[in-house]
Amino acid sequence: xxxxxxxxxxxxxxxxxxxxxxxxxxxxxxxxxxxxxxxxxxxxxxxxxxxxxxxxxxxxxxxxxxxxxxxxxxxxxxxxxxxxxxxxxxxxxxxxxxxxxxxxxxxxxxxxxxxxxxxxxxxxxxxxxxxxxxxxxxx
Length: 139
Prior knowledge:
Radius of gyration: 17 Å
Number of strands: 6
Shape: elongated
Largest sheet: 3 strands, antiparallel
CATH topology of the largest domain: GMP Synthetase, Chain A, domain 3
Strand content: 35-45%
């Protein structure tokens, strides 16, 4: 896996993934940015959210669960002093499907957190990570 980040101006950077996708990253105005893209530390949380959500959907589908909706909300706190690593992260899943059970969703969330989500496990080296979920009704 490869990635490239190119500085453009001020705090503006373009990140290019090995698969050829580009994302804009920028900083706040007080650090020379213009707020044109996500912050690099926000990108870490987004990556973790995508990684764990992919796992949960994959695990549910593999166990023949009819998942139709999944959304992850993440809240994080950072250390007050440098390096300002994440110290606490809470991941909340909102999941819906046909005949989904709390047991199946709970198992998928646990497996992602404890075994499969590389991003969560890596960030867990500096942060306390908690997870919960809610099972939603389909309309």
